[in-house]
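Hi F.,

I've been meaning to write this up properly since the lab meeting, where we talked about keeping a consistent format for the predictions we share between groups. The idea is simple: the sequence comes first, exactly as it goes in, then the structure tokens exactly as they come out, then a line or two of notes. No screenshots and no reformatting. I'm using this chain as the first example so we have something concrete to point to.
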Amino acid sequence: KEHSVFGLGSFEALHPDNSAIFAYIRRHNDDIVLCVNNLSARAQAAELDLSAYNGMHPVELMGKERFPRVGELPYLLTFGPHDFYWFQLVDEESQ
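Output, unedited:
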């Protein structure tokens, strides 16, 4: 699937407690992409408030790997140095 979200979508910055992590949501129509970037040369962890997407599953864009469902609690991700994730957020029904 081509993601027009990157050229046409809205931009919403997220604000994790870890200042080494730059995270944002891109959205265009029903296409929602979560981008999370470790700007540090060291391994990092971040908790993201994704409660607005409760019940959705992040699916990594490069390898199509499905990550655990988003809930009401902060979503924990860990990163290697200068690592990043791009996820499409999908509903249970679209799996």
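Notes:
The helical segments are 5-8.
The first strand starts at residue 10 and ends at 13.

If this format works for you, I'll send the rest the same way.

G.
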